[in-house]
Amino acid sequence: MKIIILGAGRVGETVADSLVSERNDITVIDTDAERLRDLESRFDLRGVVGNGIEPAVLAEAGAQDTDLLIACAAQDETNLVCCKIAQLLFNIPTRIARVRSTGLEGDERLLGNEGFAVDRIICPEESLTRYIGKLIDYPEAMQVREFAGGRACLVSVRARLGAPMVGGTIAELRAGAPDVAVRLVAIYRRFPDEPDRFVACAGDTRIEPGDEVFVLAAQEHIAHVLSALHRRDGAQASPVRRIMIAGGGRVGLRLAQQLGQQQGRFHLKVIESDPQRCVELAAVLPPDVLVLQGDTTDEDLLGDEGVEEVDLFLALTDDDEDNIMSCLLAKRMGASRVLALINRRSYADLMHGTQIDIALSPAQAMLGELLAFVRQGDVQAVHSLRRGVAEALEIVVRGDRKSSRVVGRKVSELTLPRDVHMGLIVRGLPDGAQAASEVGEAGEGHEAAQAAGLPAPQVIIPRSDTVLERNDHVVFFLPHKRLVRDVEKLFRVSATFF
């Protein structure tokens, strides 16, 4: 696929890194020639120096035969205008824009072909707040990713000594609950003086303390699975109530607004160093959200504000070093769980497995939304995992026995790569891309299906004799991104399917 990326900043760099690794033809446009030279030296891509809203610059980048435009420059206006020019002058089929403003999404008049001609808006800040919200809902989880409109989830959790499921083999766990829609799909194990190593989930694989375990499960089983892997008594964790946010920038403000709307659920404090920004925050946040002016790495301030009683400490400033230091300090002073927002990939890699419970990259949080546009076949959802190395993929089964290599076939008959793990099948969702929207907007569970006037979907654990049906949503775990093309090829319908 031929792709133009407008903007070589943090988001653009992350997107380019991921897409280049999948053998796409990438061109990056930016006004900073030095930054483009750096990207060209590290990745197999082409850089074009110039302003992306100038037709001549787009033409030089090869817009005439480009398949996808990803406009992720710093300014919303630049991205929107670039998409419109790409449609009017070059007829680029798919146009994606990074837009921070919340007033455009969902307005067809502004985003449609008669407006700015944007097929999809992405907002890293919105992706982050949505992702952090899931981590608040599931306190033991290190990652939470949704599939099939929230029917199924992929979670990762650190196995703890003494937890009910830790120490047993995967075969023993399956035998203990054969009909429960839960599947362990990957384990990453720590070894001295080397990175975490991928461990395939065979029947005789034993879960050891300290393992990072990836589990696919029906939404209603997630809390139980997390507790069984992380808590010694197996009981579900106490809900998160006390939250401290370090940093009142775009992400901190958006998250505080989101949490503050749930009156009475959270005791929320926001720490911001800029006095003027504190005044702005206090004016727009609910009155029960406490805004404090101070240094997020000030030990006395954290102590005075009771950081030792905090259930979740979130360092969300624009400074990676401050986020790392404030999290380490909060953890040492007694905060139950800490999350650091880290833009630099090298920093995030260093923090993995340290006292910081979660190191979160803004670009990685929204990367899956972009990858779904690049994937071939009927890919509904993509989530980048393990800092871009692994991936979880949701594909809808299309066609019939004549046009498809999977419809009507047993799982044992499919020629999947060895390390690819088919985790779950969600059956009974509406046809096509409506699956996520029609059911997801109504809520979760059987009540949601009834509210949408639909039969309740099933979450199925695939066995060797499970037969795939048309419109099944199949969720895979891939430990290496290089396996993606093989899976897509298997599920692609032939030209005889209309």
What attributes does this structure have?
about 500 residues, alpha/beta, 6-stranded parallel beta sheet
- Gross morphology is globular
Q: How much β-strand is present in the residues?
A: 15-25%
Question: What is the number of helical segments per DSSP (H or I, 4+ residues)?
Answer: 17
User: What fraction, in percent, of the residue positions are helical?
Assistant: 25-40%
Structural class: alpha/beta
State the separation between the terminal residues, measured CA to CA.
Answer: 23 Å
**How many strand elements?**
22
Question: Can you describe this structure?
Answer:
α6 crosses α9 and α6 (124-137) crosses α14 (362-374). Strands 3-2-1-4-5-6 form a 6-stranded parallel sheet, sandwiched between helices. It contains 17 helices and 22 strands. The longest helix has 15 residues, at 76-90. The two termini are 23 Å apart. The chain has helices spanning 10-20, 33-42, 55-60, 76-90, 108-111, 124-137, 170-176, 222-230, 250-260, 275-284, 299-304, 320-332, 345-351, 362-374, 434-440, 445-451, 484-491, and strands spanning 2-6, 25-30, 46-49, 68-71, 94-98, 120-122, 141-147, 152-158, 182-191, 194-199, 212-218, 242-246, 267-272, 290-293, 312-315, 338-341, 358-360, 379-385, 390-396, 421-427, 458-460, 473-478. By secondary structure, it is of the alpha/beta class.
Concise structural overview:
This protein has 498 residues and is of the alpha/beta class. It is 32% helix and 24% strand. 44% of the residues are buried.
